[in-house]
Amino acid sequence: MTIYIGADHGGFHLKQILKEALVSEGYEVIDVGAAALDPADDYPDFARAAAEKVSVAGDDARGIVICESGFGVDIVANRFKGIRCALAMSPEHIRAGRHDDDVNMLSIAADFIAPEQALAIARAFMATPFEKNEERYVRRLEKIVQIEKGR
Fold it and tell me: How far apart are CA 73 and CA 129, in angstroms?
C-alpha cells in the first residue's frame, strides 16, 4: 500500500520524521511536498496533491497530511470524492476512524502532537483495518457515497 504524505511549512519537519520512520518500516511513501521548508507556502497545495492521489488510487493508497492545526489540510482533503480524512489526536482516535468509518486519510496537527505521538497515530492508521463485515458501517459509508453524488 502506498502512503501519500504532504505538509506545508508548519508540518514540514514532522512530515520528514514520519516519512523516514514509515519508509524504514517498509511502507512505500510518496512525498507530495513541500520539498523544502518555505514559510510562504500554502497548505491547500499539499493537501490537494495527497487527496487527488488517494482519490484516484482508492483502496490501494492512504494519505497523511500535516499543518499546524491539522484543520486546514483536513478541510481540503475532504473536498475530494472518496476521501474520508480525519484529524486524530491519539492512536485510539484513529483506530476508531479506521475501524468504523474506513478513514483513508489522516490529518495531523503539528503544533499539538509530539513527533512520537504522531508516529504512534500514523502506525495505528496503517495497521487498523476497516470492519467491512459490520453492516451498519458499510451502510453508513454508502450514505456518504450518495451524498457525494448529490442524492
Answer: 23
Strands (E), the chain: 2-7, 28-31, 61-67, 85-87, 105-109
CA distance 6 to 20: 13
With a cut of 90, say whether residue 53 has pLDDT above it: yes
The whole-model pTM stands at: 0.96
Active site residues: 67
How many angstroms separate the Cα of 114 from the Cα of each of 11, 22, 32, 83? Answer: 11, 16, 22, 26
| 150 Cβ contact list (under 8 Å, min separation 6) | none
Answer whether residue 138 shows pLDDT above 90. Answer: yes
8 Å CB contact between 46 and 76: no
What is the CB neighbour count within 10 angstroms for residue 79?
13
Cell of 22: 514509515
Q: What is the pLDDT of residues 4-51, one digit of tens each?
A: 999 999 999 999 999 999 999 999 999 999 999 999 999 999 999 999
Please tell me whether residue 29 adopts helix, strand or coil conformation: strand
**All domains of the chain, ordered by start, with CATH?**
2-148 (3.40.1400.10)
- Which residues on neighbouring strands pair with residue 63, listed in sequence order? 4, 105
